[in-house]
Amino acid sequence: MAHPDGKKIFFENLSGAGKAIAVLTSGGDAQGMNAAVRAVVRMGLYVGAKVYFIHEGYQGMVDGGDNIEEASWESVSSMLQVGGTVIGSARCKEFRTHEGRLKAAHNLLQRGITNLCVIGGDGSLTGANLFREEWSGLLAELVEQGLIEEDAVQKYSALHIVGMVGSIDNDFCGTDMTIGTDSALHRIIEVVDAIMTTAQSHQRTFVLEVMGRHCGYLALVSALACGADWVLIPEMPPEDGWEEKMCQKLSANRAGKKRLNIIIVAEGAIDRNTKPITTDYIKDLVVKSLGFDTRVTILGHVQRGGTPSAFDRILASRMGVEAVLALLETTANTPACVVSLCGNQSVRLPLMECVQMTQEVQKAMDDKRFEEAVKLRGRSFENNLRTYKLLAHRKPESDLPVSNFNVAVLNVGAPAAGMNAAVRSAVRVGISEGHKMFAVSDGFEGFYKGQIKEIKWGDVGGWTGQGGSLLGTKRTLPAKHAEKIADQIRKHNINALLVIGGFEAFLSLLELLTAREKYGEFCVPMVMVPATVSNNVPGSDLSIGADTALNAITTTCDRIKQSASGTKRRVFIIETMGGYCGYLATVGGLAAGADAAYIYEEPFDIKDLQANVEHLTEKMKTSIQRGLVLRNENSNENYTTDFIYQLYSEEGRGVFDCRKNVLGHMQQGGAPSPFDRNFGTKISAKAMQWISKKLVETFRHGRVFANSEDTCCLLGMRRRALVFQPVVQLTEETDFVHRIPKEQWWLKLRPLMKILAKYKTSYDVSDSGQLEHVDRNRPKESDASVAM
């Protein structure tokens, strides 16, 4: 890794020598906290600092003694996949008192700790900031009481604090996603998917209560992810008379042959007069008004439990490393900060600015300024709410605009989880915009064969949770069949194309763009939404389906590692998909705690393999019981999975034995993750809105004529935003031979994986977060908001 000026930054330059860092978890627990603790400990040790656990949060800091324990590399092994927090968390009344904070300061000074990494909610972080502000006064008191020497005041003059937000509610302003939110969504969606099957059998209505006393994020996003009929959240109470409207909607859905209804309620849901809306009230209302068989399910602490998702592990690991870097760079004048991710970038935000803005949301709700509360939550929250309303509530035919445009939607390439959510979103947004929507079966093969039919609002009901591609998808490219496809476009009067797929979809758009010279039928707006487990499409940092595949890899690796517990030392060699793209192997390796990940983008030779074996052998002798090595399927034509398995088996003989596993197509299957459902829904809705705009712009003399480069685009997530890019401009940044982009953001995560696996490596700090201010108009934190 290198700076823009060409200088390499080695671990020696990130010196923490002589520093002591303590990490604690406080307040409510959240899945992923352990991954953050692990990253802080290992990055702290990597830079030469002493690292301490503070058990039981602030209570442990006040009580001292064995609650403050020096951490070692081995002490955080095997905790990545564990939910909750293994170092414990507790509410502490004593820390709220001056005397309690004085005790805490004394306990920290006894171990020379002046750097605190606090993982918790806004209350925990506010307490940490107060502690920091009082620090010099507390030192003076301790000198006065004779508990510390005078010179300690000079030596430990400043307390440095960095926060990470651990909260399943995602209720902290300034961050895209808090640690634990994605895992909580996984728990909710697992329950909703299970309930939907039984509800369908008996034609029942289910009312589900999810957590969120002051924030409706979980309720809103889970409603979006499962296509719920109604959602109630504290930020946006329903208009007066909502009961009648809700019953009409439920009744209309049943009349439309829908066999079930799902209503999702945040536990803090209120009406316009701030009176609580309870699940029992809704149940009684539905039974009394409609006579539907109605059941209530309160999810409760199920949402806090279970193993962290791949997203939360990666988020927490990146934030943990960033927190240590932030502590190393702080000075006495640096304000306490929160580390977070915005899009794919690390950011540091002043802690109290974030806390104040979070408190403003609650104040707006208390004052019944609900529209303002939604705005303060950020653009992502607003976008979620707007998208939900657009997709869940169908306008009467008389209220719909009439565009007289026909739009075709098709899937191209291999199936990816989330494709169906994207199709549903496109169809419903298209109908809402007044277009007639057509579904093409089996990609361009179905297109030239005429497998095209109109698709209505109700046809895509229940599609969000379905894996694979319900439309059918093929890898066939259009160039060979251009004439037949042009005939079909003319026959069905298709005015725009939405293509959802992987690298083949990108190639298809390039071929159709070229075919415009010969066939006027292709002079229509065309847009592609990336959907592939490989995440190898140029122009987008993320693709629909990649998150589901990562979760499949992570879950399988957890199980495989667990299979060796209690046995002798064992190393597992796992082969992942991805073609020539090493995204799944690298990011899956980071989420599963791999010791190495072999990929095409980072060439390796026999010396590298030998060094890896020796490194793992050394670790096996001294600490760990299980090793994990991932290999991308096309990483090297000679160093195959079998070769690496045999090499490790031979070289590790007497120390560990080996097993190999090819994960194969299980990475493509299964129900889409909440992330992929929402990413597919939101990115596809945005693509359809672009199509509507281009149709108006290019309609002249009674027909659509679009022949400029900017009418054939790819919609991708770039760092902090969703961006439309002409496909022809992306050709220069594409390696067509290996079907990958020439530059890939996730390669910056590889040194991070190596550091957490105890390798000495260079680490590029040029991309680490810089302190920014909370911008009220900055999306929470972008349209992308990591797609959630």
Give a structural overview:
This protein is an alpha/beta fold. The chain folds into 4 domains: 18-178 and 308-362, Rossmann fold (3-Layer(aba) Sandwich), CATH 3.40.50; 181-303, Rossmann fold; 406-544 and 673-743, Rossmann fold; 547-668, Rossmann fold. The chain has 23 helices and 27 strands. The strands form 6 sheets. Strands 12, 13, 14, 15, 16, 17, 24 and 25 form an 8-stranded mixed beta sheet that branches. Strands 3-2-1-4-5-10-11 form a 7-stranded mixed beta sheet, sandwiched between helices. A hairpin with a 2-residue loop joins strand 10 (337-342) and strand 11 (345-350). Helix 6 (181-202) crosses helix 7 (217-226), helix 7 packs parallel to helix 13 (379-392) and helix 11 packs antiparallel against helix 12 (370-377). It is globular. Residues 1-12 and 777-788 have low confidence and may be disordered.
Descriptive tags:
788 residues, PKF_sf, Rossmann fold, disordered C terminus, eight-stranded mixed β-sheet, 4 domains, alpha/beta, seven-stranded mixed β-sheet
Brief characterization of the structure:
With 788 residues, this protein is of the alpha/beta class.
Summarize the topology.
Blueprint: E1 20-25, H1 33-46, E2 50-54, H2 57-63, E3 68-70, H3 98-109, E4 115-120, H4 122-144, H5 150-155, E5 160-165, H6 181-202, E6 205-210, H7 217-226, E7 230-232, H8 242-255, E8 261-266, H9 279-290, E9 294-298, H10 310-329, E10 337-342, E11 345-350, H11 351-366, H12 370-377, H13 379-392, E12 406-412, H14 419-432, E13 436-440, H15 443-449, E14 452-454, E15 473-474, H16 482-491, E16 496-501, H17 503-515, E17 526-530, H18 546-562, E18 570-576, H19 583-592, E19 596-598, H20 606-622, E20 626-632, H21 641-651, E21 657-662, H22 674-698, E22 699-700, E23 703-704, E24 712-718, E25 721-726, E26 734-735, E27 740-741, H23 750-756
Parallel strand pairs: 1-2, 1-4, 4-5, 5-10, 6-8, 6-9, 7-8, 12-13, 12-15, 12-16, 16-17, 17-24, 18-20, 18-21, 19-20
Antiparallel strand pairs: 2-3, 10-11, 13-14, 22-23, 24-25, 26-27
Helix pairs in contact: 1-10, 2-3, 3-4, 4-11, 6-7, 7-13, 7-22, 10-19, 11-12, 12-13, 14-22, 15-16, 18-19, 19-23, 20-21
